[in-house]
Amino acid sequence: MMLQHLAPRARHSRILAACVAVLALASASLTTPHQAAAAEPPSLPSGVAPLQPPLLQKDDLVAICGDSITARKIYSVYVQTYLLTAAAGQNANAMQFGWGGETAPGFLKRVENDVLRFKPTIATTCYGMNDGGYGPVRGGTVTTYKNALRDVVSKFKAAGVRTIVIGSPGVVDTKAWAGKKKDTTPEVYNNTLSELAGAARSLAETEGCRFADVHAVMADTMKRAKTAKGEDYIVAGTDGVHPTDNGHLIMAYAFLRALGCDGNVGTITVDLKAGTAEGTEGQKIAGTAPATAAAGPGVKVDIESSRYPFCFPPNKDAHSAASILEFLPFQADLNRYTLVVTNIPEGAKTLKVTWGNATRTLPVADLARGINLAEEFRNDNPLIPAFAKVMAAVREQQELEGEIVMGQLNKLMTWRKFLRDDDDDNAKDKEALAEIEILANAFTKRLNTQRQQTATLSATAAPARHSLTVEVAE
Question: Could you say which of 76, 173, 372, 460 would form a disulfide bridge with 236 (CB–CB 3.0 to 4.6 Å)?
Fold first, then answer.
């Protein structure tokens, strides 16, 4: 049984071309007035395990798998952008494989066709939100979920995936989800999600996988944020299920910790007396020069960074990613870009630090210990344009992945099954199957090419140049 619309290769090319239109990239230098950093970074959310050993290796490919929350392409964009900027150096990259409405058993049916063809070396999963049925725990719910995840893990291992990170489901918002179900309150369903999280943790332990406790981190951070800002501060989305940007940053935090990212983006050490500077790996000192300062000595440092921090461009949205930072230790745990100043003249009380277009006057004691430039200059730093370019390219890549994986590759699986189940074993069926494989390989190649194009904008491939000036203020 020959499928006429699959036969002509020319038509294949037109289908492929329609799926791979490239969106224009745009970036702009964004600045806003300084927002003072908190005196103490937020504490580690309850239930979160200590930082795990790093596992990223050269040229790793991380497959980010999940339901419609993953398919929103927000936390997955954060994770991939972080790998290409703050954790650059290993040339690790990522792809996202989210699918709306999916459960763990649903993913099991498509993991080979949709994911494993790309040969990931690391895989993350985030299921459970739909598996719980949006009600209290019912008989068989947890067992079905855990068994499906176990089978997914087995398929990953059989395909040579080196490391698997099992993520627990997130939470429903205690305000936005209220009243969505007549017989289920947010507290009841979050208890169901907690049960599923326990099953995911147990499976990770028995299968030798890493565990990202998305549920515990989101529940704890949401509670603290709502205590401070009020119940109207939404974390798990206006529908109570799909997080806003702040909730997605919490999810990214959980997965990046599970991946063993240590948060040491780089350190610049400035010797004020000698007028010299040193940088750790990824921070090349391109030059130094004296800086004019009325009150005392100063030095301007030109830097070329092949690793730079995750940036938070100004955003007035009340539920932006940056809005959750006072309750989540993202900056302290995962985003430390440190400036240390040594040999400060005796008697100096403050130093003036200029990074790009922004200037801060800071206590000598803080600079001697080291300040986190990523936090101190959070909304106004010269690395924002380079970071924005990478994030735009990542979004473009992940949008294309959604179009091709969901819109094309997965449908080919259905056609393949249809032809193989056909009782007529004839030459036309075999020819159609061959045509399907040609098309599947073309889609796979296109996505691999797009990912490689994204990597050309990474901090490693395209280092960012910027300047930093330190001088005595008083």
Answer: 173
